[in-house]
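Dear H.,

Thanks for agreeing to be a second pair of eyes. The structure we're designing against is below in token form, covering all 517 positions.
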């Protein structure tokens, strides 16, 4: 039986309090309350007489467990099996739901000629596969300017990450000096040519590399470099394309992200960890947005009006397409004084299929293609499985900044209703129920029994594929609690949810499922 959220969290809070008194728990509490527990950053450099740094073997053993090969599944044609999986770079876990990589790796996902079906991360040493659901590139990064802007990015996943690397704090990185030993773990592309990574099939092994710092540089090559304006770390490590996004470590902590190098003298370059710290905080505080992955198909939304003549007479059909709603097609058919609804879908290639939903006497089905370039659509329709005619319509393309007049559902209406949320916290199953009306939480039931006092609720942010909501309530003897849910569509009536519960000075995170009651 699932326990109420209040009693379970009280038990977890006791464990968290105990951990805070034990040296080396290695878990920090996110002060923004917007993410789960994450590795404590900024562990002080030991004083004289204390152990200085973990060994190279210890450092690299931890590093290789944290890295993931980033794979992009591209659609190469309109059929289900028309796809190719491509390795594009390395990333490493920095918090429970986030990985770090190079900005140019993130942009390689977003900027491509082929439609992206899925983005995956494959963990070194285990072969565990995670789905990458979002990417944020440092806002100051300029793709055309090599080693002159912060080439770092954050990837998000709803799959929990266990082996995470701590980031060196800004105060500690000033201790970097020439000839300091550094370590790197990643996936060189030339190795991948021999040991090809196949997600879900084999277990990739990361390559562990060692070297030394050979120079500290600034983006501005007209200034004298000091610890405060060091932006680039130069080193000699034999990397190759594919290691972009790998962690660069010194004394057991990440000091930078590997991004570039030369072939002749094997001079390599990493972006200082201060830019990664800044970006991670901005993502946690939501001042830098995450772009959902896979990238959405082109935004075509509009009406198709067509007239066709067959034995039943003239038909006039109107249907709506909105790619932000899973490529759904909606509309109606007008004939013989009836208005049966139309339902269907459109894929990344503009292939559209739809059918009369409630016509029982005659079965009508429609197939065709839309062409955003010419803003037209055309196709054929079938009656009882036999070709019966053709249709032609005009397409109103939705462009950024221009309201779409053909929206059929508001941004929050899709998750209005009653929901049950189940999750596991510290081995204990919890359950609570929600009522959402007009895009806000209106009722909260701890344990899905008695209603708790609801204090506030923000408006649900919903884009058809995922949602985000936040509300505050009174939970048992814990008193005030702020609860956030981040959900991604799992099925027609369910979502996978990431749960964040903040109360007093504590923060608990969990993964769960939200299903329609």
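And this is the sequence the design step returned. I haven't edited it by hand at all.
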């Amino acid at each position: 039986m699932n326990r109420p959220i209040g009693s379970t969290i009280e038990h977890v809070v006791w464990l968290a309090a105990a951990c805070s008194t034990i040296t080396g728990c290695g878990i920090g509490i996110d002060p923004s309350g917007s993410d789960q527990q994450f590795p404590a950053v900024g562990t002080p450099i030991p004083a004289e007489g204390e152990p200085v740094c973990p060994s190279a073997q210890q450092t690299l053993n931890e590093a290789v467990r944290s890295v993931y090969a980033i794979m992009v599944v591209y659609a190469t044609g309109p059929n289900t099996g028309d796809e190719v999986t491509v390795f594009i770079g390395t990333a490493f876990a920095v918090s429970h739901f986030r990985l770090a990589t190079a900005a140019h790796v993130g942009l390689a996902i977003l900027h491509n000629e082929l439609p992206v079906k899925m983005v995956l991360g494959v963990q070194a040493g285990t072969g565990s596969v995670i789905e990458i659901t979002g990417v944020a590139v440092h806002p100051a990064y300029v793709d055309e300017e090599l080693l002159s802007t912060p080439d770092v990015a954050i990837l998000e996943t709803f799959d929990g990450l266990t082996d995470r690397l701590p980031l060196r704090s800004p105060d500690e990185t000033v201790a970097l000096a020439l000839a300091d030993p550094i370590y790197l773990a990643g996936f060189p592309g030339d190795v991948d040519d021999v040991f090809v990574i196949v997600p879900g099939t084999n277990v990739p092994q990361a390559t562990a590399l060692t070297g030394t710092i050979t120079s500290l540089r600034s983006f501005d090559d007209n200034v004298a470099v000091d610890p405060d304006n060091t932006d680039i770390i130069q080193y000699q490590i034999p990397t190759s394309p594919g290691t972009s996004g790998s962690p660069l470590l010194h004394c057991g902590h990440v000091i930078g992200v590997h991004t570039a190098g030369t072939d002749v003298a094997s001079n390599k370059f990493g972006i200082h960890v201060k830019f990664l710290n800044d970006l991670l905080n901005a993502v946690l505080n939501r001042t830098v947005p995450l772009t959902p992955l896979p990238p959405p198909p082109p935004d075509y939304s509009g009406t198709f009006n067509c007239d066709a003549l067959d034995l039943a007479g003239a038909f006039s059909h109107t249907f709506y397409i909105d790619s932000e709603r899973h490529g759904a097609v909606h509309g109606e058919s007008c004939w013989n004084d009836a208005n049966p609804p139309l339902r269907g879908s459109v894929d990344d290639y503009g292939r559209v299929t739809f059918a009369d939903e409630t016509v029982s006497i005659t079965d009508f089905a429609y197939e065709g293609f839309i062409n955003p370039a010419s803003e037209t659509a055309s196709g054929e329709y079938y009656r009882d499985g036999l070709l019966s005619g053709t249709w032609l319509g005009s397409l109103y393309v939705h462009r950024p900044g221009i309201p779409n007049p053909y929206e059929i559902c508001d941004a929050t209406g899709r998750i209005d209703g009653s929901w049950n949320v189940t999750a596991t916290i510290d081995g204990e199953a919890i359950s609570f129920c929600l009522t959402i009306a007009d895009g806000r939480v209106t009722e909260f039931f701890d344990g899905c029994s008695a209603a708790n006092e609801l204090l506030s609720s923000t408006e649900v942010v919903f884009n058809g594929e995922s949602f985000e909501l936040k509300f505050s309530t009174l939970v048992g003897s814990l008193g005030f609690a702020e609860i956030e849910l981040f959900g991604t569509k799992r099925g027609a009536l369910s979502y996978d949810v990431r749960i964040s519960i903040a109360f007093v000075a504590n923060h608990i995170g969990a993964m769960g499922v939200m299903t329609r009651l």
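Two observations from my side: Confidence is low (pLDDT under 50) at residues 11-44, 298-314, 396-413. The helical segments are 5-19, 56-66, 103-110, 189-194, 273-284.

Warmly,
E.
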